[in-house]
Design goal:
Layout: E1 2-6, E2 9-12, E3 17-24, E4 32-38, E5 45-50, E6 57-59, E7 67-72, E8 77-82, E9 91-98, E10 112-113, E11 117-122
Length: 123
């Protein structure tokens, strides 16, 4: 199984980025997808998650109203649209997949992980 995250980069505060996570080696449409992030010196934290059928979504309070999560099962890809970015959003962003019964915001429930994609926000 491979999860390939991409789309990170340098953006000014207030700007937008869209991250993508493309999966292979699993039946993507059967997996919930999550995004997590880790800033230097901090623990990894939950950002957003979407269930396998695109009917349930969860967001961390810190990104509600600014970030959206979506998926295209025909492309085996999940997306994280990040708007109104703040310097505190800067981190390595990771996508992850799980087939647990209920949509989870816990990193411990996610089975497969992609490599990080770095988001830098300048003030």
């Amino acid at each position: 199984v491979q999860l390939q995250a991409s789309g990170g980069g340098l953006v000014q505060a207030g700007g937008s980025l869209r991250l993508s996570c493309t999966a292979s080696g699993l039946t993507f449409s059967r997996y919930d997808m999550g995004w997590f992030r880790q800033a230097p010196g901090k623990e990894r934290e939950f950002v957003a998650a979407i269930n396998w059928s695109d009917s349930v979504r969860k967001f961390a309070d810190s990104v509600k109203g600014r970030f959206t999560i979506s998926r295209d099962n025909s492309k085996n890809t999940a997306y994280l649209q990040m708007n109104s970015l703040k310097p505190e959003d800067a981190a390595d962003y990771y996508c992850a997949a799980t087939n647990r019964p209920a949509l989870s915001n816990s990193e411990y429930d996610y089975k497969y992980w992609g490599q990080g994609t770095l988001v830098t926000v300048s003030s």
